[in-house]
Each structure stands twice: as C-alpha cells, then as structure tokens.
C-alpha cells in the first residue's frame, strides 16, 4: 500500500501490476479507498490451467472449463492474462509449443519439408490458445520470452547438484549453459514455421490496437458447446468464434450477436500467412438477421473450420459515393423548404461563365 501510494503520488501516469494468485481482496482498489492500490493483477491461474488441459486428450477438453479459467476474476478488477510463464518454461518443464509438438519441432518446422499431423495440430492450437487467452483473460496481455512464436524449449540456468535439508538430492545440469538462452532468431526466420506463428501474434496486437476490445466494457459469452467444441463470445463490436473440434468443420454455423449490420473477418488463424490452410474467404460478407439465438437479439451464419479461431468485426455504414462526391443524408428536420422556381433569363454578356 505504501509503495503504490508513493508511486501513484509521484508519477500519476505510472502503472503497477501485482503478482497474486490467491485472489487477495481489495488488491486493485485504490489506497485512498482502503485497497492495496495495484492497477492490474497478473492472472496467474490461466497458465497453470493450460498446462493441465494440454496433458489431456483432445476429446477431454471442456469448453466450459476453459471459459471459467479465463473469466474467473473479480468484477471490475483489471487483470493481465498470459498463456504461459516461467513456472512452466523454466528448469526442465515444457513450453506450450513443446507440450503440443514435442520432438517433431526439431525436424519438421522447416517450410521446405513436409509437415506432420502433430505439427499441424500444435500450430493450430497454439494460435487458438493465445487468442482465446487474450480475448477473455483480462484487460492486458503478456507474452513470455518466445511464447509469441512458439519457442520449443525451456530455460535452465547453470546449476550444480543440491541436497535439501530433508536429504532429498536434486541433480544439477553440470553448470551447463546449453539451455540458458532464448532463440529469438527462430521467429524471424522466413524459412521456418515459427515465422507464421509470430505473424499471428503481431496480427492479434494490431486487431486489439484498432478495435480496443480488451478495454471494452461489453463482454458476452453466448456459446460454450461441449458437443461441437465451439466457444463464441462478443467483446466490444467483435465476435470471436473458436472451433476446438479436432475433426468437424461446420457450414452455416449460427452465432449470436448484439448489433445489427454487416460483419467481416478481421483475424483468421487459418490464414496461410499464419501457417494455416486458407479455408475461409476474407472477402465474404456476413449479414445479421433478427431473432433471438443463444440469448442474443440477432445472429449470422459462418463457416467454422476445425481447429480455427476467427474474429468478425461489425462494419459501420459506409457513405455512398457517386461521381467521386460523398453524399451525406440530410435529416428532414434541417432540409430547406422548396424554393420558388426561377425563371430562366438571358445571360449577361459582361458576366464571366460559371464553372460547371
């Protein structure tokens, strides 16, 4: 409380983030209101939940469990979400990418070599995990040391053998520096599949920057279908559609929405740029129609390929353009009254011609 009060008093523009998994009350309430005074809390439970889910078969993933882990936070308490952190990626454990693709990452991540079913699954799910975490997990998003491109390995600092007071021996790594680094060059290599995973991360940030969905007050989860393995939710004017099914793609899949109008695709995890299969037409338009569905007043139909995440944005009414002149609809209340017809007269010989 003292530190937060001092920081915010001296630097009003500063942001403080607290690492707390216990759900401590008043953690993000201002000090003057009796709180601890942090601006954000790290949503630490999310990363642990993803590792727990990744140890299960695809058939055992529960959509409701994923949604609950991402949204289980105190109302109006701002959180920073992340898919993995040092607890998973340090000292011998696996990163999310390595949990998904394991040793295949050493041999089949080059674009000039054929992929495998394990690589295709891993890249698809890695993108979906990051986007659903960003979309539902909080008001801020954190990348952890290579998560943005699917870093294949953990970090292990040089260390020797240790013996705990209870007599348990912990083997070291012979003071090896082999795993004491991050391979950030992998994400920039245009001949590796890591590049597409990094491009997707940049696209996520661009969509958030343009639409500001993480700071929008409107969030509504309209579907978490355990049979279809589909999650649908709204955040701001965006509609997120996740199909976690390992095999089933859905044509004319109906998703609920709040606002009427035309929607378009603004992010597609299946885009070939991101290492996908390009099954969606980004020029397609999706029009809402009236009628309650999934507790939403309107809905529209989409194609949801298996293991994809797609974000649809509401397209605001565009002005009509005729002869390169923008036409503006004038409300009836300000339209001028009809004028008396003017009689044509002979032009003044001394006057200059008018521009058309």
Description:
The protein has 356 residues and is of the alpha+beta class. It has one domain (43-164, 173-314): TIM Barrel (Alpha-Beta Barrel). It has eight helices and 17 strands. The strands form five sheets. The protein has a six-stranded antiparallel beta sheet with strand order 7-8-9-15-11-12. It has a four-stranded parallel beta sheet with strand order 1-2-3-4, with no helix packed on it. A hairpin with a 2-residue loop joins strand 16 (321-322) and strand 17. Helix 6 packs parallel to helix 8. The N and C termini lie far apart (71 Å). InterPro entries: A-amylase/branching_C (IPR006048), GH (IPR017853), Glyco_hydro_b (IPR013780).
> How many DSSP E strands?
17
The fold-level CATH name is TIM Barrel
* Number of discrete helical segments: 8
Proportion of residues in β-strands: 15-25%
Report the major sheet.
6 strands, antiparallel
> How confident is the prediction overall: mean pLDDT?
88
Separation of the first and last Cα atoms: 71 Å
Query: Nearest-angstrom radius of gyration?
Result: 27 Å
Query: Mind telling me which CATH architecture this is?
Result: Alpha-Beta Barrel
Helix fraction by DSSP (H/I, runs of at least 4): 10-25%
**CATH class division:** Alpha Beta
Biggest sheet, spatial arrangement of strands: 7-8-9-15-11-12
Structural class: alpha+beta
Uncertain segments of ≥5 residues (pLDDT<50)? 317-356
Series of H and E elements: HEEHHEHHHEEEHHEEEEEEEEEEE
The CATH homologous superfamily is called Glycosidases
Number of domains: 1
Instruction: Characterize the overall form.
Output: globular
């Amino acid at each position: 409380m003292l530190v937060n009060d001092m920081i915010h008093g001296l630097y009003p523009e500063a942001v403080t983030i607290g690492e707390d998994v216990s759900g401590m009350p008043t953690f993000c309430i201002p000090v003057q209101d009796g709180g601890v005074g942090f601006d954000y809390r790290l949503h630490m439970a999310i990363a642990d939940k993803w590792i727990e889910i990744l140890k299960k078969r695809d058939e055992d993933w529960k959509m409701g469990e994923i949604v609950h882990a991402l949204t289980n936070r105190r109302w109006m308490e701002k959180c920073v979400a992340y898919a993995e952190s040092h607890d998973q990626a340090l000292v011998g454990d696996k990163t999310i990418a390595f949990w998904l693709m394991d040793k295949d990452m050493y041999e089949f991540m080059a674009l000039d070599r054929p992929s495998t079913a394990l690589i295709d699954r891993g890249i698809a799910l890695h993108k979906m995990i990051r986007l659903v975490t960003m979309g539902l997990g909080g008001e801020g998003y954190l990348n952890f040391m290579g998560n943005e491109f699917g870093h294949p390995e953990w970090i292990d600092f040089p260390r020797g053998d240790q013996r705990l007071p209870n007599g348990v021996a912990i083997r070291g790594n012979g003071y090896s520096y082999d795993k004491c680094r991050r391979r950030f060059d992998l994400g920039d290599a245009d001949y590796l599949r890591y590049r597409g995973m990094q491009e997707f991360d940049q696209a996520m940030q661009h969509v958030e920057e343009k639409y500001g969905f993480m700071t929008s007050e409107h969030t509504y989860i309209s579907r978490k279908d355990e049979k279809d393995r589909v999650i649908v939710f709204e955040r701001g004017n965006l509609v997120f559609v996740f199909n976690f099914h390992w095999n089933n793609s859905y044509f004319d899949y109906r998703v609920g929405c709040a606002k009427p109008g035309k929607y378009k695709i603004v992010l597609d995890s299946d885009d070939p740029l991101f290492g996908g299969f390009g099954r969606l037409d980004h020029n397609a338009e999706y029009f809402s129609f009236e009628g309650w569905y999934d507790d939403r007043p309107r809905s529209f139909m989409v194609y949801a390929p298996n293991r994809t995440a797609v974000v649809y944005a509401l397209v605001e009414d565009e002005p009509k353009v005729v002869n390169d002149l923008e036409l503006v609809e004038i409300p009836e209340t300000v339209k001028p009254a009809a004028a008396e017809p003017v009689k044509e007269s002979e032009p003044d010989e001394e006057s200059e011609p008018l521009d058309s």
